[in-house]
Design brief:
- One of its GO terms (biological process) is glucuronoside catabolic process.
- Homotetramer.
- The protein is of the alpha+beta class.
- It has three domains: about 150 residues, Galactose-binding domain-like (Jelly Rolls), CATH 2.60.120; about 100 residues, Immunoglobulin-like (Sandwich), CATH 2.60.40; about 290 residues, Glycosidases (TIM Barrel), CATH 3.20.20.
- About 20% of the residues lie in helices and about 30% in strands.
- The protein is built from nine helices and 32 strands.
- Bound molecules: (2S,3S,4S,5R)-3,4,5-trihydroxy-6-oxo-oxane-2-carboxylic acid (GCB).
Amino acid sequence: MLYPRQTWARAFIHDLTGMWNFRADDSVSRRQGFDEQWYLHSLSKTGKVIPMPVPSSYNDITQDKGLRDFVGWAWYDTEFYFPRELLNKRIVLRLDSVHYNAIVWVNGQEIMRHDGGHLPFEGEILGHQLSVDDLNRITVAVNNTLTPTTLPPGEIIYENDTNRYPPGYFVQKLQMDFFNYAGIHRSVKIYTTPKVYVNDITLVTDYKDDKGFVNFNITTSTSSPSDLRSIDVVVRDAYDHVVGKAGNLKGTIDIPNPNLWWPWTMNTSSPAYLYKFEVTIVTKDGEKDNYLLPFGIRTINVTNTQLLINDRPFYCHGVAKHEDSDIRGKGLDFPLIAKDFNLLKWLGTNCIRTSHYPYAEEIMDQCDRQGIVVIDECPGVGITKKNNFGPVSLSHHLKVMEELVQRDKNRPSVIMWSTANEPDSALPEAVAYFRPILEHTKALDPTRPVTFVANQDVNKELVSQYVDVICINRYNAWYTDCSHTELIQRQLGNDLHKWHGKFNKPIIVAEYGADTIAGLHQDPSFVFTEEYQIEFMNEYHQVFDSLRGDFLVGEMVWNFADFMTKQEIIRVVGNKKGVFTRQRQPKMSAHLLRSRYYKIINST
Ligand code: GCB
């Protein structure tokens, strides 16, 4: 499944961004929409609808608390015209992310279903399912219910004590620390390709001395290559000069004197250098397809103490993020993406983790283009209960890793796959569960290290033996020994040495942070104040500095910006561990981090 990019053979891409009709099914059964077959007519004929922007989460758009906290099926529809002259093409409907389960109909006919909230899915619309004389309708039903076998897992708890709760009362219990935003979160597009088309491209790059190598494998919709009259593969440099060619679907193209892809902080003369891989196929009938994929030439390697990009040690000075902002929740938003990348550069960040789910491809594009390295994480967050480790969860988790690797495998910015965040990796069940996931991911992509992000006591940890790079989250002087910043150096230093001693692998501290209310000050420092966040971070930085160049290969503050969570007494309108506020204004800690990260950049 290739991202819909416009080329001369694929000029038609119709983006359905805009106001759709919306109706949440708050009937007692939560199935009124199916019982009444809402997909057969415009939603506006079924009852009251409200305008809902796509893409966006629906939760924060209205003043209705019931909709903000809604659990169940929500319905969307919109209309579009389709051009008659394209009816002879392959017509594809693509949704980049719908959280969580989705069913999609066109003109009342089911086109596809998808489970999982953060990865794209698409299906073909057949010519006879469309009208070219009239408007067509697309209907999407979205269900945000999390269960023990979804990723992330969750649970619906029915409260049966009628002294305290009305009959049928239920609550959704979340096992992750972010708001369960729901809806059509990313773009919905209709695009066309020729009937015989380029299906997939896999690129693996390497270099030796002054030569770059692009190993390519192209698949097309026709299984017999003899259906094709010609195959043209061209590699262009950033100035569109042709630097390599081939005439087959599989092979290696040599690139003389390649410009390697570097993170922006490692080589300022040509950071994040992107080539273009262009493939054109012509069938015996003269039908042509053309696809163009940006890519970079670079290698990733791991030793017992180092993470190497292009054989040079890489130290990650980064942030863990969320897709989260006011009003739109997890909805794709270009101004926000641009602002965040400006802030990442302002901070001196060279690496992000897509905590705790795959981010929009438009964000990943910027990582490739701007030279920000990515630890690419799947939505396996909060796998902590025994019933999260069963065979249904496992097979879904394996499938999600396949979808993620498939989507992001050609991105130079992606240097590692993260299969989970903070599962209970001390449980024996976790070994039987994660070992195949890590091995499967490695088999899908042997060119990148695999990991999961651990938070266990080192003595109890069972799964980290199967990863390539250890990632751990630590909250000394916050969740343990709260306020005792004087203990951080001793505790964290000893801890990290033990992890390296036990597993003999490079380590990234993938989270450390303290909740901080912007503008709250107290001296001497006190928890939740800006002074505390700075004092706290400074202590961690001392430990990082003592281990950098040894086995520590990265540090990532939790979090880039404040973000929304469920309502609970440890959260004051969300998680406040951001170095920026949710509105992207800096706390004192952002200035501290900026001077630290630029010092690191200037010293390497
Ligand atoms: C963690 C989790 C993250 C939370 C964070 C916190 O360990 O990985 O999702 O938001 O702690 O602030 O509690």
